[in-house]
Amino acid sequence: MSPELSPPLRVALPTRRATIRLGKALARCLRGGDLVLLSGELGAGKTFLTRALCRALGLPHAEPVTSPTFTLVHEYETAPPVAHADLYRLSNAAEVTQLGLLELRERGSLLVVEWGTPYASQLGGDALEVVLSAEPRVAVFGASGVRSRVLLESLRQGGQGG
Fold first, then answer.
1. DSSP assignment letter at 159
2. Which pLDDT value is given to residue 161?
3. CA-CA distance, 7 to 42, in Å (whole number)?
4. Which stretch of DSSP H or E encloses residue 98?
5. pLDDT at residue 18 greater than cutoff 50
6. pLDDT tens figures, 68-98
7. Could you say which of 3.40.50.300, 3.90.930.60, 3.50.50.60, 3.40.50.150 is the CATH number of the domain covering 9-155?
8. Are strands 9-12 and 137-143 parallel, antiparallel or unpaired?
C-alpha cells in the first residue's frame, strides 16, 4: 500500500454475497479513467470481485468474466467500459506500456489491474489499491492520490454496500 493521508479501509468478505455487494459499492463510486489495483494471493477473489464490479456496471450474466492471466487484457462493454488486466507474467515497465492500458484509461476506460502495483506509474498513478486475502476473506483498501482518496472516503462513508 502506498503512503496516504487516511488510514486503510478494511472490509470483511465472509461470503460471496458480501463480495458482490462490495462490487456494487465500487460501481457506484468509480468512473471512467479510474485505476483499481488488485493484489493478493491466488484464490483471494481478485477476478470474482472484478466480475461483481462488471455485473454492477451492466455486463450481462451471459458474458463471462475470467482471469486475463494468459490474454493479459479483457475489455468489457459496460458503463463505463472496463479494461481488466493481469500483469503477473510481465517482467518490466516496457511490457506494460506496450499493452496500451494508459491509453485506454485516458480514453475513459476504468482500469482494473491484477498484480499491477509495481507498475502503478506506467498506468497513470492515483490508484485505489485493494489487497485481498483468502483467510480471513478481507479487502483492505488504500489510496495513492487525490482521486483515489476521494474514492476511499466514499467507500468509508458507507459505500461498501455492507
1. I
2. 39
3. 25
4. helix 93-98
5. yes
6. 988 999 999 999 999 999 999 999 999 999 9
7. 3.40.50.300
8. antiparallel
